[in-house]
UniProtKB/TrEMBL annotation:
<feature type="transmembrane region" description="Helical">
    <location>
        <begin position="86"/>
        <end position="110"/>
    </location>
</feature>
<protein>
    <recommendedName>
        <fullName>CASP-like protein</fullName>
    </recommendedName>
</protein>
<feature type="signal peptide">
    <location>
        <begin position="1"/>
        <end position="32"/>
    </location>
</feature>
<dbReference type="InterPro" id="IPR006702">
    <property type="entry name" value="CASP_dom"/>
</dbReference>
<feature type="domain" description="Casparian strip membrane protein">
    <location>
        <begin position="10"/>
        <end position="129"/>
    </location>
</feature>
<keyword id="KW-1133">Transmembrane helix</keyword>
<feature type="transmembrane region" description="Helical">
    <location>
        <begin position="143"/>
        <end position="161"/>
    </location>
</feature>
<keyword id="KW-0732">Signal</keyword>
<keyword id="KW-0812">Transmembrane</keyword>
<keyword id="KW-0472">Membrane</keyword>
<comment type="similarity">
    <text>Belongs to the Casparian strip membrane proteins (CASP) family.</text>
</comment>
<keyword id="KW-1003">Cell membrane</keyword>
<dbReference type="GO" id="GO:0005886">
    <property type="term" value="C:plasma membrane"/>
</dbReference>
<dbReference type="Pfam" id="PF04535">
    <property type="entry name" value="CASP_dom"/>
</dbReference>
<comment type="subunit">
    <text>Homodimer and heterodimers.</text>
</comment>
<feature type="transmembrane region" description="Helical">
    <location>
        <begin position="48"/>
        <end position="74"/>
    </location>
</feature>
């Protein structure tokens, strides 16, 4: 059963809205994660976590400022006119950039957390309380990476919808 062009547009819009929600949760959870103990500096905060938050913020900005307006425009104007190939190219390119950016943020978040947990668990600590505090911090740091992963998968779904719409608009398809 083939989906109509309007259904593909609505699916892409829905995926983008869910993606924004998951990316917002990523940012909130990552920024709310703190250690219980006060340390002299932020040596336990990894640059990869900053990159993960930045990827989520840039992904949200790209979606809100570029992809959502295009998706809403296409959804409401597609009944009357054929979508512009240029507009669909811009939307598809933005989807691909956002997906790659989010994928790199996922890799940075999971990779840094895994390495930091391994080091924290197997290093010799003079203070057991600091070790436990850092393990709790890094365990909680996996949750924003999971939400970022879900956001990336939703971005991939939006990319599939954009690709399908682009192929239909330019007749670059065999049997769509």
């Amino acid at each position: 059963m083939a989906l109509s062009q309007t259904a593909w547009m609505a699916a892409g819009l829905g995926a983008r809205l869910l993606m924004i929600a998951f990316l917002a949760m990523t940012v909130q959870l990552a920024l709310a994660n703190h250690t219980r103990l006060t340390h002299s500096d932020d040596w336990w905060k990894l640059p990869s976590y900053t990159y993960m938050v930045a990827a989520a913020v840039i992904g949200m900005a790209c979606s809100v400022l570029l992809q959502l307006p295009v998706a809403v425009y296409l959804l409401f104007k597609s009944k009357r006119t054929t979508p512009s190939a240029l507009l669909l190219d811009i939307s598809l390119s933005a989807d691909m950039v956002a997906t790659v950016l989010l994928a790199s943020g996922v890799g940075a978040g999971f990779g840094a957390t895994d390495a930091a947990l391994r080091h924290t668990r197997h290093a010799r600590w003079d203070d057991g309380e600091t070790r436990k505090d850092l393990i709790d911090y890094y365990d909680k740091a996996e949750l924003p990476a999971v939400f970022l992963l879900i956001g990336m998968v939703l971005s991939m779904a939006a990319t599939v919808a954009s690709t399908r719409l682009r192929a239909r608009a330019t007749n670059d398809h065999a049997d769509l």
